[in-house]
Amino acid sequence: EKPEFELKMQPYDGFNYPVEMHNVADQLRNIRDMTLRDDDIFITSYPKSGTHWINEVVYMLLRGHASYCRKHCWLDADGFDTTDNAPSPRIIITHVPIKWLPWRLSQGRVKVIYMTRNPKDVVVSHYNFGVNLAATAFDGEFNYSYIDKFLNGDVPYDSWFRSVLGWEQFPDTHPKVPFMMMNYENMKSNLRQEVEKVAIFLGKAFNEDLLDKIVESCSFSKTKQDKQENPDPRFKTFARDGSQILYRKGEVGDWKNWFTVTDSENFDKVYKEKMAESKLTFRFSV
Ligand code: A3P
Fold it and tell me: What's the ipTM?
């Protein structure tokens, strides 16, 4: 028998939004109509794909310095006061579906980075985040029900497949937009090379020394330690027990500690069907 549990979400316009996103309809319209600055950088992703990680890399490259303090604009949750007042260049992060992105994006002045991660690690990270998030606060089991819900898109931020398949088409649907897809497993296996790719995409001057320092600062252990010393206040308020919940394990293949053999086989079957038309490939271990 599969244990059942309820996940809090806000369905709107055929998509499951998280409960932390207030006034979804207004918020989405505000995002769609927002004013852009030519030097804005958008980071988009399916949640738990390493959004914060790539944000830190981008921030350090823009600044030309390997240290971080919170400067991004989190569109889905922060709303527009912080975004409007943020100094340039803004790093704007969102998980909303492509159709709700600012219509001005298609004018092609603003750069967009989409971050990806293999979905087995995403579902594990998603589950652990959800379990610890005060707003979601569910007590469900991971095996069976959470994986099923994830595969069906019945989780906050809807379907992973819908996200990656949509973004795979983005260069065709938005031909003017400077666009780059980044990937968690690639960053894990060669962070330096991936940081350099981002620097080139951003058109930022860099040297070997800066790359070395960014690679060091953006390692999982260094980042986790920094965040423990200098916690992001939002996550404290979001977490059920007031702890930092974002920097959990930071590995490729942790899913193997969570999936049963049957879970993995079922997942692979659905993955194969849903990704049949896709050219994207993901590494489930490195
Ligand atoms: P885990 O839960 O598997 O540890 P997002 O920022 O999109 O919410 O993604 C969060 C995931 O990225 C978490 O995964 C987190 O640990 C991981 N992460 C954050 N910073 C990282 C880093 N510097 N290196 C590797 N993984 C990182």
Answer: 0.99
